[in-house]
Automatic annotation (TrEMBL):
Topological category with respect to the lipid bilayer: Multi-pass membrane protein
Subcellular location: Cell membrane
Keyword Cytoplasm: no
Family stated for the protein in its record: Belongs to the 4-toluene sulfonate uptake permease (TSUP) (TC 2.A.102) family.
Membrane-crossing segments per the record: 48-65, 77-94, 145-169, 175-195, 207-223
Pfam families with a match to the protein in the record: TauE (PF01925)
Keywords recorded for this protein, A-Z: Cell membrane, Membrane, Transmembrane, Transmembrane helix, Transport
Name of the protein in question: Probable membrane transporter protein
UniProt superkingdom: Bacteria
Phylogenetic classification of the source organism: Bacteria, Bacillati, Actinomycetota, Actinomycetes, Kitasatosporales
Residues forming coiled coils: none
Amino acid sequence: MDTITLWQLAALAAASTLVGFSKTAVSGANTISLAVFAAVLPARESTGVLLPILIAGDILAVLVYRRHAHWPTLLRLFPAVAVGVLAGTFFMMWAGDDAVRTSIGAILLFMAGVTLWRRRAGSQPPPEEETEAPSRAARLKARSYGVLGGFTTMVANAGGPVMSLYLLSAGFRKLGFLGTSAWFFLIVNTSKVPFSVGLGLIDARSLLLDAALVLFVIPGAYLGRACVGRINQKVFDRIVIAATVLGGLQLLLS
């Protein structure tokens, strides 16, 4: 990791603040933070620096929205996510920066397109209101999104948009969306730490930079909590999808 200039440090601090905001308000906005970290730092190294920042944001989000999680959805996702994380770990053993950016950007744009198509075809009832066992199609969708979410979160910490699209397509409202996302990413991101250390993505130097950035997550989380109640549900959905598309394009074209 090369020496970081003051302007680069300021950009990383702003991106860390946005992590806090995204965790407590608009999850898809995380792709902007991912893009900033990848622009300032080498793409592979940026994933290791960003992970502890994300975990700090996850902890704050769980403290705020812990009671709104939908655990049947989480339990349905975790086995597939584990498969995706393992696949992402093997991918990171040989993939370079260009391969990481291109793969994740293409996946995000594809998933945004699928979600928009599904929303135009017709919405589904929110999962938190389901009383029957999930259908075969629902289980298949959870597995597909789970594998993609695990892969993208391991490769580039880009699982947020994938899981946001899954929760939106399943009909989650704001609080259920944020509570389920908070627990999901706290558990998944924490489980990624040993893999990231083993790949050399997290080391003493990256943790030193994290120590300087982690405090910027707190004001972002506070701002997100203050704003989330004022965001209209349709606007919320559109912001999540728009942030996903912009993040995907940035990764694909950079």
